[in-house]
Amino acid sequence: MSTQQIPVVVLAGFLGAGKTTLLNHLLRSARGTRIGVMVNDFGDIGIDAMTVAGQVGSTVSLGNGCLCCAVDASELDEYLEVLTRPESRLDVIVIEASGLAEPQELVRMVLASENERIVYGGLVQVVDAAEFGATRQRHPETDRHLTIADLVVVNKADRVSVDELSAVRETVGALAGKAVVVDASHGRVDPELLFDRVVPEDEIEGQMSIEDILYGSEDEAHAHPHAEYETVSLTASTPLHPRRLMAFLDARPEGLYRIKGFVDLGAADPGNRYAVHAVGRFLRFYPEPWPAGEERLTQLVLIGSGVDAGALRKELAGCEQNGPQDAPDEHSMWGVLRYVRQSRTDEEPDEAPDGIQSGAGARPHTP
User: CB neighbours of 114 closer than 8 A, spacing ≥ 6?
Assistant: First the structure.
């Protein structure tokens, strides 16, 4: 099914920012989630099995169900084809960019990929809170990278004072626009902020895993907490008006990073429900027939940092159709259908204002 596409997350940041530390944390926190890692510039992956350094195209198992390979970015599609084969059973793919790579090009390649089994999972830009000013001086392109990020992790927050961290966040926020900005220490970002974690059948959600026991003591967990995020669940039994739904999605508030679920558009398309996948400034809908006998509801899960659950529920309620006099007209679905991915033969990427290509179903990045 289209809604089962594998998200591809691009992880970027200059040398020393903490990309590999964050990636290792994700791998240690994988539990039942199968992560495919594509390392564009082989770093210090702290896993013994990664003896593949420099062997471009080699793929190894990391022992916890995850896979890793060192890649040549110019042949990204070839490696995506390997990692998305059904036998790999991956839940998410993370591309760790070279410290000197252009993340814009990697994002462009993911969006332009002809692999129908993937979907863009966002650009995560890691910055070093302690070295942010010096990094901007050495690498002026830092500002441009931040303008296209979907999520910015201000890492090494424990190495600066409260005032210094606040100043870095203010500068990052001004550059990153609507991107979500979170603080972290030692790369400890909760995986749920980036992708859906799979709970193994023999594990009770919320209990400590073997990875928790092996890689983090209780003292360490308190010393290096995860970057905080909130999850808000929204349900509506009345169909939503397509135009007001798009206004809600287009104006989604600062701090809201991911949206997933299904929407009921009522008479605008009575035969289908629309699966929603939004990450950062990327949005896509997947129409699919309503399951027989299932109650027709809009059910959304919103994930972000500092979001106002009450305000979001009020805004969603404002999208509901108000009786026959509020029925959608024949043009009301145009905004939604713009983000429904057509077949590749029908899809020609448009040039977004900042140079990132985005086809039908991929919302252009805007500063």
Answer: 77, 344
Say if CB 192 and CB 200 are below 8 A apart: no
pLDDT 10s digits, 164-193: 999 999 999 999 988 999 999 999 998 888
Between residues 117 and 342, the one the model is more confident about: 117
Residue pair 91/100 in contact (Cβ under 8 Å)? The answer is no
Sheet of strand 272-279: strand arrangement: 230-236, 298-304, 256-263, 272-279, 282-289
Six-digit token string for 171 = 């500068």
Cα separation, 311 vs 282, whole angstroms = 22
Asked if 107 and 18 count as a contact pair (C-beta separation under 8 A), the reply is no
For strand 118-128 and strand 59-61, is the pairing parallel, antiparallel, or unpaired? unpaired
Q: Give dist(CA 128, CA 163) in Å, integer.
A: 15
* 120 φ, ψ (degrees, to nearest 5): -60, 130
Tokens 């599609």 belong to which residue?
77
pLDDT of residue 50: 44
Its pTM surpasses 0.85: no
Within 10 Å of residue 91's Cβ, how many Cβ atoms? 19
Give the N- to C-terminal CA distance of the chain in Å, as an integer. Answer: 32
- In sequence order, what E strands does the chain have? 6-12, 35-39, 59-61, 67-70, 92-96, 118-128, 151-155, 180-183, 230-236, 256-263, 272-279, 282-289, 298-304, 350-351, 357-358
Distances (CA, A) of 214 to 29, 206, 208: 11, 16, 10
Secondary-structure percent of the chain, ordered helix, strand, coil, rounded to 5 = 30, 25, 45
Over residues 150-173, the mean pLDDT reads: 96
Place of tokens 């994930």: 303
Segment 42-82, tens digit of pLDDT: 444 444 334 333 444 556 666 566 777 766 667 788 888 88
- Among 22, 45, 9, 12, which Cα is nearest to 139's? 12
Look-up of token digits 């903490």: 18
